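Hello forum,

I keep getting stuck at the same step: I have a sequence, I want structure tokens, and every attempt I make locally crashes halfway through. Rather than fight my setup again tonight, could one of you with a working pipeline run this one for me? It's a single chain of 275 residues.
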Amino acid sequence: MGLRERGCLLVVEDVCKSFNGPNGREEFMTVLNRVNLCVRSGQLACILGPSGCGKSTLLNIIAGFERPTSGCVLVNNRKIDGPGSDRGVVFQEDALFPWLSVRQNIGYGLVRAGRSQKEIREKVCRFIQLVGLEGYSEFYPDQLSGGMKQRVALARVLVNEPDALLMDEPFAALDAMARASMQSLLLDVWGTLPQTILFITHDVDEALILSDRIYVMTAGPGSILEDVLVAFPRPRTLEIMATADFQAAKLKLVKLLERARDGGRPLEIIPNCPM
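Reply #2:
Ran it on my machine without issues. Output:
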């Protein structure tokens, strides 16, 4: 595919992943089959696909938590072989330390990295403001709503300035209002920081609202069915969902997901529409 020559910050090249069958039997279950994608510096890309297609497995490989059976992942042209500070991960569950305050959770990585107290204080203060948690710095996770916990989780990753931010359906467990609020917040934060983001979702609206580019994955074994560029102008707000262009783009993606669930077989041709 020549992805390494295109100036991509994050490259997934011919990644396959298989697991042993139940009870350690010799047969293998293939989860990912030759996945290829690239995310340019400063781009917000989504991976969209049906449940069980291997989205989270792929993210875990990019994060370095899993190793591919074959193929490779590169960040800034460096092949990864494990977790690293160049990649930050926001999970569906907030994974905050319950014994630490908001301020301490956000600054945890900086403390572990041996940064000065002055730098930690200044950066934590900045990111508390950036995610809208002023006045909550001394609160503990059990005193926060689900949406506020995810704000802390987002700030805790971003404060370490990773090259790539990996997000595994981070808003899926939130109610509709909290989810919309977090989508708006992510767009605002992304507009402020020069951050490269790869976002996993199974929600078509969320993918269209957030992304510059959408990789649609087939049902397992997962592979990339379609690489869709989203041309809606930025900055974006949630009001874009009411437009005819958005609804046309949504229909196109829904049709692609129907193909994805059926292994990628052709369906009726959808007329060109703005994406």
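Residues 244-261 form the longest helix (18 residues). If your local run keeps crashing, start a new thread with the error log.
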